[in-house]
Write a structure and sequence with these properties.
208 residues, alpha/beta, Rossmann fold, six-stranded parallel sheet, 4 helices, globular, Isochorismatase-like_dom
């Protein structure tokens, strides 16, 4: 397969144990993305991994809200927030990358969601939409103008990363078969609509 130009980066979103079958917040068939992502890495000169990295008792966990259950909605100072099962707690086995995911080709790991009271879906911003992760600066310094996104989950962290990247001026492609979705209350259809409106290209990995 052809190499991508040096100004195109691969962003691998949250391919972690807790998001794969058997994990605390498992995405159906989530581990199936790994065999597609691993060979893709060799086609890019810039590869970035993101990692959900919550402190224990994170405010987005349902357990932090008495009488609330996982997947209920609450209002945070920054807006609506899904309450999640405890997942990807810092230093736990569930927060680790999937054991079969190649990590050695990555030049950077962006950890997100480590601020106790702010959740983080996007690789670029926390959910308050103001607190940056530093990824934009890193990519800009390396001359990156186009991104290919893969990983978990299509309708949350991939979606928000893709939309933010497009808003920041990157050309963005999502390799849909190298992603899997949660699809909570129609969230997958919403994700497709928002990505299309933002100019994000969604294609199968063989069409890259």
């Amino acid at each position: 397969m052809d190499q991508f130009p040096a100004d195109t980066a691969l962003i691998v979103i949250d391919v972690q144990v807790d998001f794969c079958p058997g994990g605390a917040l498992a995405v159906e068939d989530g581990s199936a993305v790994v065999p597609l992502i691993n060979p893709l890495m060799d086609r890019f000169s810039t590869v970035v991994l993101t990692q959900d990295w919550h402190p224990a008792g994170h405010h987005s966990f349902a357990a932090a809200h008495p009488a609330k259950a996982p997947f209920e909605m609450v209002e945070m100072p920054y807006g609506p927030q899904v309450l999640w099962p405890e997942h990807c707690v810092q230093g736990t086995p569930g927060a680790a990358f999937h054991p079969d995911l190649r990590t050695d080709p990555a030049q950077l790991v962006i950890r997100k969601g480590f601020r106790h009271r702010i959740d983080s879906y996007s690789a670029f911003f926390e959910n308050d939409r103001r607190t940056v992760t530093g990824l934009r600066g890193y990519l800009s310094e390396r001359g990156v103008r186009s991104l290919v996104l893969v990983g978990l989950a299509t309708d949350y962290c991939v979606r928000h990363s893709a939309v933010d990247a497009a808003r920041l001026g990157f050309q963005v492609t999502v390799a849909e078969d190298a992603c899997r979705a949660i699809d909570l209350g129609g969230s997958l259809a919403e994700a497709h609509a928002e990505m299309a409106e933002s100019g994000v290209r969604v294609v199968p990995s063989f069409a890259l």
